[in-house]
Design brief:
The chain has 222 residues and is α/β, with parallel strands linked by helices. Helix content is 38%, strand content 18%. It is built from 6 helices and 7 strands; from the N terminus they run E-H-E-H-E-H-E-H-E-E-H-H-E. It has helices at residues 24-39, 54-68, 90-101, 119-131, 160-173, 185-199, and strands spanning 14-21, 44-51, 74-78, 108-112, 136-140, 154-157, 206-210. Strand 1 (14-21), helix 1 and strand 2 form a beta-alpha-beta unit. Helix 3 runs parallel beside helix 4 (119-131) and helix 5 runs antiparallel to helix 6 (185-199). It is globular, with a radius of gyration of 16 Å. The two termini are 13 Å apart. The model has no long low-confidence stretch (mean pLDDT 91).
Length: 222
């Protein structure tokens, strides 16, 4: 298992963020992405969205660029798989992951939680683990009608300015989703507040993740 050394001599150089739908990464991990940009100098981010109509593709690109500070250190890949049908197009979705494996060498991967009740989310998580077997993988969570919220075992405390940027960005960039009852500032703030309580975040807010296995060493020590 690869260790992620956290010191200036071993910076975070490449991040792979994968979402089934065009707002999933932002809902689950936008705060963490903003925080990482403050901690590490200009990591390259490969931002992959597997289900995006033309309109939602534009939303995803605008949102990613807003979070990551433009195009210089960001590559956004979008695909047009059918919403809700990922398991029935499994071979084609897996082909995307196989091509991705040949073009990235991420230090960190963000993907869906493996026990998510949405079938598209579960398949993305499964294929992430099938494809990237020697990487740090953090599984993010997405609230939905299906429920299924669990108990994360890894937390990223977030400063209030990052929390505000995350929520404002979601509401600004994803106009196609604003008519959904669950897509609201209150939903996103409420989940981050709950996770903040669970990890005693100084600001009261955090994002929660599921990390199945990791080796985290300080500095160069073995």
């Amino acid at each position: 298992m690869r260790a992620w050394n956290i010191d200036s001599s071993s910076p975070l150089k490449e991040v792979l963020a994968i979402g089934a739908h065009s707002d999933d990464i932002e809902i689950g991990a936008a705060g963490t992405m903003l925080w990482l940009r403050q901690c590490f100098p200009d990591p390259h981010v490969r931002w992959v969205v597997l289900c995006a109509t033309a309109e939602r593709r534009d939303e995803a690109r605008r949102s990613a660029r807003s979070i990551l500070g433009g195009d210089r250190n960001c590559t956004v890949d979008t695909h047009d798989f059918r919403d809700g049908f990922f398991p029935y197009e499994g071979a084609k979705v897996k082909d995307v992951f196989e091509r991705l494996k040949a073009t990235v060498a991420p230090d960190l991967i963000l993907t869906h939680h493996g026990d998510d009740r949405h079938q598209d989310h579960r398949l993305v998580s499964e294929l992430t683990w099938n494809t990237f077997r020697d990487h740090i993988i953090m599984e993010y969570e997405v609230p939905k009608y299906d429920g299924g919220m669990g108990s994360p075992n890894f937390f990223v405390p977030l400063a209030t300015d990052i929390v505000e940027r995350k929520v404002d960005g979601l509401m600004e960039h994803f106009g196609t989703q604003r008519n959904k009852a669950w897509f609201s500032k209150e939903t996103f703030l409420g989940l981050m507040r709950l996770r903040g309580i669970e990890c005693r975040s100084p600001s009261g807010y955090a994002e929660g993740f599921y990390v199945r296995k990791a080796i985290w060493r300080e500095g160069r020590g073995g």
